Amino acid sequence: MKLAFWEWMIRGDDAPPTDGGSPLEELGLRMREGKLKSRYGPYHARDLFHIPLNREDGPICTFDRMGATRSQLADGRVICVGGEHEDFYDPDFYIYNDVVVLGPAGEIEIYGYAKEVFPPTDFHTATVAGDRILIIGCLGYKNDRRPEHTPVYVLDPSQYRISEIATSGEMPGWISEHEASYDREGVITIRRGQVIQGHSNHQQTRRNFEDYALDMKSWVWQRLTNRNWLEFSIRQEKGLFVLEHRPKPEALLPRDIEYTIVPCEGQEDARIIVAGVPVSLTLGVKYIEVVVEGHMPAALAAGVAEAIRTNAEATVQRRCILEQM
């Protein structure tokens, strides 16, 4: 799709776009150094071209995206897939289903697809597997999600053709924000990430604790681990845990259950050992996540989570609800 404005938004040039696009000599160097990032999002374009906020012609195309992927090929091309701009409340919120190719000399090519061929895709993985790029997972629009299904697409970099792959076996589910690795035996391994559960208006997000492998010869998924960690979520009955009133992690720790504080290993806010089992706390705006990372009697695990809920409720002075995911 040869669109001068879109290419200008991708390049982040200072000059307005022309019919032939606006070349940028430094683009190739910035791309190879991994520094290419759109400097100007929709707000800059709106100010420059005097476009009102309450327009009715849809969002402004941008390369300022979250959850997009960039795959470096041996010939110098960088293949960028999909991504999301902002969130639903923003007038320029959009989940893209395009492929943007950045050439080693600063060239830009934009490929678009029908949604039936390649739906809006974000927070996926794009793994270079031989002469193909395997696109796995997605967050997507709420009404497009299919819990218990894992979307898999193959991109052919020689023609930029995208094909959906029908897989079988024990798959991760509707997974996003995960990690993927490829080995020479033709196996893609998926770890971590978030999984959507539920249907229609009642959808929940839980963390993925298991590892999965997809054999590219048979397209069959296999679950590699059986951790079965327990996850609990604590939310306010009304409202969110706003920043200025969010409880401190140390204020949430159980008072009547023996534990040992240990250093955090990831993005969690607190980590303790209860009866020899690690328990992590992660404080978010919507939820406080409690994860029991090992085998613990159900009654003890529930007691730890309830103690944290009680402390959260006392701290924020609002009723809090505990749910097991």
What distinguishing features does this structure have?
325 residues; alpha+beta; TATA-Binding Protein; 2 domains; 6-stranded antiparallel sheet; 5-stranded mixed sheet; 22 strands; 14% helix; globular
Kindly describe this structure.
Mean pLDDT is 88; it is low at 19-38. The two termini are 43 Å apart. Strands 18-19-20-21-17-22 form a 6-stranded antiparallel β-sheet, covered by helices on one side. Strands 9-16-15-12-11 form a 5-stranded mixed β-sheet, with no helix packed on it. It has a 4-stranded antiparallel β-sheet with strand order 1-2-3-4, with no helix packed on it. A hairpin with a 4-residue loop joins strand 20 and strand 21 (288-292). The protein has helices spanning 4-11, 27-32, 42-49, 249-252, 298-316; strands spanning 69-72, 78-85, 94-102, 108-111, 125-129, 132-136, 152-156, 161-164, 168-169, 174-176, 179-182, 187-191, 194-199, 202-207, 212-215, 220-223, 230-236, 260-261, 270-274, 277-283, 288-292, 320-324. With 325 residues, it is α+β, with helices and mostly antiparallel strands. It folds into 2 domains: 4-223, no CATH class; 230-324, TATA-Binding Protein (2-Layer Sandwich).
Q: What would a concise description of this structure say?
A:
With 325 residues, the protein is an alpha+beta fold.
Q: Name the shape in a single word.
A: globular
**Order of helices and strands, N to C?**
HHHEEEEEEEEEEEEEEEEEHEEEEHE
What is the strand tally?
22
**Domain unit count:** 2
- Rg from C-alpha positions? 23 Å
Helix content: 10-25%
Structural class, by secondary structure, is: alpha+beta
